[in-house]
Design goal:
The chain is α/β, with parallel strands linked by helices. The protein has a domain of 213 residues: FAD/NAD(P)-binding domain, CATH 3.50.50.60. It is 31% helix and 26% strand. It contains 12 helices and 18 strands. The strands form 4 sheets. The chain has a 7-stranded mixed β-sheet with strand order 5-4-13-14-15-12-16, with helices on both faces. A 6-stranded mixed β-sheet has the order 7-2-1-11-18-17, sandwiched between helices. A 3-stranded antiparallel β-sheet has the order 8-9-10. The protein is globular.
């Protein structure tokens, strides 16, 4: 390593700024490059649980996150007329429940993380990596805009479908499709909305949710079972037309959500999947977050994996002179945690997206039983990801 330790992080969502925070704490010079022109505020609900919450506490961010939570009271399964079938109140524990104690919009958490990084961290928006030359003593990076730059390390953190990852790891990391398409958008809030998240199933493997936010609007999702690759490479207009076709006459709030498609530019359309990578490091380049081990939104573990992975990777880098030893330590600590996170509940995602009316009746009956006082503990466990199933190392002695 050179005396001036430098790292480039590709991606400025959750894991990227978290990694920047910790590496700056350990005395590294950090640059983050982000394809988007600015930090994306808002977006959809995520939660901070288990070991992820412990990391946030070590960053002195737990109170700030609590102050920015959406105020979601819990999750209701509803009928087509909006009446409640089953109600799961927000959790008061660190890990269990469909609605965690700390629910926050993804963009709001990203903003808190960015604001927590020191002024020495350089953020470069509206740019992306085009080439990577990994050398024994440095990694040279080319960009869409600007001159090439050399760094001691490069960490790729830019999502499940990372193009940057392919420049180094090729096709070795694979995406395991889960047979579910999900679209996210923001719609106007009405007087009929409440601070409860609403979940509705329609025949044909279709699901809709409405969730409160802190902006006076509602975060909506539309999901449907779909063969892998069936709807890849659609333009935004084609995505909207597909959703109109899929959710026409679906009932409940379907038409309200569809009516908002043309008024909103924040539609995000994705096929849900998991990233399986045989290794998370090559030379001086490492993978982190969804680019390394996306567990899918179904897992409920995305935020925990991002925060914990950033904490462990930074700590291992600071604890070792040789980056190869650091990357080996990172994988040794994180692999078991990731493997648990990627073990989805039996039947997921089909069990939560029944194709038939009989399947919906069965799901709602199970939800009603799970929400009852006698079975509330069982119902809570069904919604409890393994967010605390890791022994976090203590790297505090390495802080400069």
């Amino acid at each position: 390593m050179t005396d001036t330790k430098t790292v480039l992080i590709s991606g400025a969502s959750i894991a990227g700024p978290a990694l920047a925070y910790w590496l700056a704490e350990y005395g590294w010079n950090v640059t983050i490059v982000e394809r988007a022109n600015e930090l994306r505020d808002g977006e959809q609900n995520i939660d901070v649980r288990g070991a992820g919450r412990t990391v946030a506490r070590r960053m002195n961010l737990e109170d700030a996150i609590r102050g920015a939570t959406t105020g979601e009271l819990g999750t209701e399964f509803v009928r087509s007329d909006g009446s409640a079938i089953a109600r799961f109140p927000a959790s008061t524990s660190d890990t269990s429940g469909a609605t965690a104690e700390l629910e926050i919009l993804r963009g709001d958490l990203a903003r808190l993380l960015v604001d927590a990084t020191p002024d020495t961290v350089e953020y470069v928006f509206g740019n992306s990596i085009t080439a990577i030359d990994d050398q024994p003593d440095h990694v040279r990076v080319s960009f869409d805009h600007g001159d090439d730059r050399a760094f001691d390390l490069l960490v790729i953190v830019d999502g499940m479908n990372s193009r940057t990852r392919r420049l180094v790891f090729g096709t070795a990391p694979t995406i395991r499709p889960l047979g579910l398409n999900t679209s996210y958008l923001t719609i106007p809030r009405t007087s009929a909305d409440s601070d409860w998240a609403k979940w509705f199933n329609a025949p044909g493997g279709r699901t809709m949710t409405l969730r409160p936010d802190t902006k006076g609007t509602i975060r909506a999702t539309m999901s449907f079972l779909s063969p892998p690759g069936a709807h890849d490479a659609l333009t935004p207009d084609q995505q909207k037309n597909l959703l109109r076709d899929k959710f026409a006459h679906a009932g409940w709030e379907a038409q309200r959500i569809l009516d908002s498609l043309d008024q909103k530019e924040d539609l995000y359309f994705e096929h849900i999947g998991q990233v399986k990578a045989p290794t998370w490091a090559s030379g001086r380049v490492a993978l982190l977050g969804d680019a390394a081990y996306c567990a899918s939104p179904i897992s409920g573990m995305g935020t925990s994996l991002a925060l914990v992975g950033a904490y462990v990777l930074a700590g291992e880098i600071a604890a070792h002179v040789d980056h190869r030893d650091a990357f080996r330590g990172y994988e040794r600590i994180m692999r078991p945690y990731v493997n648990q996170a990627q073990q989805l509940p039996p039947g997921a995602p089909r069990i939560a997206n029944p194709r038939t009316r009989i399947g919906i009746v069965a799901l709602n009956a199970a939800a009603k039983i799970g929400a009852s006082r006698a079975f509330s503990a069982i119902g809570g466990k069904f919604f409890s990801p393994p967010a605390d199933k890791i022994d976090l190392p203590d790297y505090s002695h390495l802080v400069h």
